[in-house]
Amino acid sequence: MKSEKTPWHALYVHSRAEKKVYERLVEMGFEAYLPLITKMKRWSDRMKKVEEPLFKSYLFVRSDEKRHYEILSIPGVTRFVSFERKAVVVPENQIVAVMKYCNDFVEDDPQTNNQELHEGQLVMITSGEMMGLTGRLAPINNKKRLIVYIESVGRYIPVNISRAKVEPVHENMI
After folding, report:
1. What are all long-range contacts of 85-91, with beta carbons under 8 Å and residues at least 24 apart?
2. Mean of the pLDDT values across residues 97-126?
3. Does the predicted model carry a pTM greater than 0.90?
4. What are the φ/ψ torsions at residue 41 (nearest 5 degrees)?
5. Is domain 8-90 annotated with CATH 2.60.40.10?
6. What CATH architecture is 122-173?
7. In the chain, where are the structural domains located?
8. By three-state DSSP, how is residue 78 classified?
């Protein structure tokens, strides 16, 4: 189903079922997108690279309303993200932005400190695929992360980005 006219929708799935639901959607002929990022995870005896979903319990699928019941019958699918009982359409440009982000994802390096930044500060991404996006810094696990709001999904996306790729923006510049 690779029609440009068929809209993207966000699916809410069971916890840790994202990859299985994605595989099943593809097997059934749907165009689906599961945004994945690679992170270093620490076990007691080693560090390991692990691929995990950018949005826990969410993935995207192109579908018209006629096939929604078919999608909802897949084990692990809970529901479509909806507003007033209608599946929300995710604009193509937002899917493209998420794809670019995942392709440009780099875990934050706590040793990189090019300037003094503080929680709640408005910053702009100055390089990479996400260049030009603005967001607010929030401390998470003693690191600073840029928050970008994806409107259609109705959630804040925590964007891990090197401090070297952001610069402060004055509130009146936007």
Report:
1. 87/9, 88/9, 88/10, 88/152, 88/153, 88/154, 89/7, 89/8, 89/9, 89/152, 90/7, 90/8, 90/9, 90/10, 90/60, 90/152, 90/153, 91/8, 91/152
2. 70
3. no
4. -115, 140
5. no
6. Roll (2.30)
7. 8-90, 122-173
8. strand
